[in-house]
Amino acid sequence: MLLRGTRLSQRLRKRYLFTTNFSAWPTRPAHIRHLHDIRPPASKFNSQQSASIPDFPAGISSRPSPAVTPDSEKSNRNWMYVSIGVSLVGLMVWLNSNSKKQKLPLSAQKIWKEAIWQESDRMNFNYNEALGRFIEALNVCDRSHVDPLSDDYTRIELKIAEMYEKLNMLDEAQNLYQELLSRFFEALNVPGKIDESERGEVLRKDLRILIKSLEINKDIESGKKRLLQHLLLAQEEILSKSPELKEFFEKRKKKLSVIKDISRDSNDDFKTFVSEEHIKFDDQGYMILDLEKNSSAWEPFKEEFFTARDLYTAYCLSSKDIATALTCKITSVEWMVMADMPPGQILLSQANLGSLFYLQAEKLEADLNQLEQKRIRESDQDLDMGTYIKAVRFVRKNRDLCLERAQKCYDSVVSFAKRNRKIRFHVKDQLDPSVAQSIALSTYGMGVLSLHEGVLAKAEKLFKDSITMAKETDFNELLAEAEKELEKTIVLKAARKEESKSVPQ
């Protein structure tokens, strides 16, 4: 039901994960970079040529140069020496600041080019030969004492892992990813190992490698543990840059204790984040980022951070830990608003939060059935009716509250789309399909809730609407789910109609 477990994981992979050719996420909507090209883009500063000095107008002579005297000549020499000294100091500072971006030795560069040639179509994708050349290039780097944290060194290792994957040597690839992750994790935790100005870029590389490694991960528990370790590391970095976020996080931790016992406070301030207050529009009706927000604390690893959080939610679902998945998702949606994430992703996260609330309601429904079965199995003497009644009321209240919050999440997305109808017409113009998918998913979710309540006519209409939207946006995963639920609804409607005919008037 509602994109559970692996289905949610698959959606997240489609939206964020690297493809098999190591495509990384865009750190900005219009840019896509390869994982093995993890160096920051070249600066565009001074890309334009400086304007030439204009000549003096005709008929006007320039001011004559002053006569050179011994004192002025000495002064010029002094200025020359000072300039040379300043230049040398500047060069040393520049070299020191770029120590992590050192280039490969010439011999390693030659081997690297040979390896790239071997893996190309010109050589019929000779991955075995390419793998050997990449390993040879890495050995040259080791002998030349190239820094293992540098971009070029890491790039060779990632190409080796890529060759392992293409040769279906997944265990070897996973081991290499783990070696990389351990190295970055240790470096980030040792004070002074990485310069403060470089920590953000190193964290981004760390998260990218982590997410790539999870594509071939087979052990759910170990993957979940690694995700949590690296997420906490990135989270600490974010909180260290923003006292306001740290204060918010402390308050949020207190509130999230309510999730595992939702009925403890039915009037808590749960709210959705899909509103004109958080999502802005331009004059033409297109959704835009709220650039007035100060989201610098999340840079430059914002996209990777939220992708990893979504993966952690999916891992929790895979291990049937719905309560933790729900807790993580609530925080993620709030943080996405604060970090000024793309509006479509906020909409889709809000819709998926509704799905998680529904999954929790399903689990509580199963708990109610277990309590009922226990009452049937045990005699009145063995069963403490007071305790039984109290437990039933507690679980039922939690279930109803989860259903109410699921409805609120879906309603917020659909109502937002109705109030801002222009976003429906611009869906095909947008590179990010999340807007349309969030509306389709929320419509489907409202259909599931109507089916749960037995309002079959409304459920049928909502499922048909979600099917239409899923087809328009190629949301094939949701399309399959909605078609199954529609078929179930039609069968129930027919059965109800037959039942009403058989009842005597």
Automatic annotation (TrEMBL):
This protein's GO CC annotations: i-AAA complex
GO molecular function term, any single one: misfolded protein binding
Domain of life per record: Eukaryota
Database matches in CDD domains: Mgr3-like
GO biological process: protein quality control for misfolded or incompletely synthesized proteins
Region (Disordered): 55-74
PANTHER family documented for this protein: MITOCHONDRIAL INNER MEMBRANE I-AAA PROTEASE SUPERCOMPLEX SUBUNIT MGR3-RELATED
Name recorded for this polypeptide: Mitochondrial inner membrane i-AAA protease supercomplex subunit MGR3
Organism: Saccharomyces kudriavzevii (strain ATCC MYA-4449 / AS 2.2408 / CBS 8840 / NBRC 1802 / NCYC 2889)
Lineage of the species this protein comes from: Eukaryota, Fungi, Dikarya, Ascomycota, Saccharomycotina
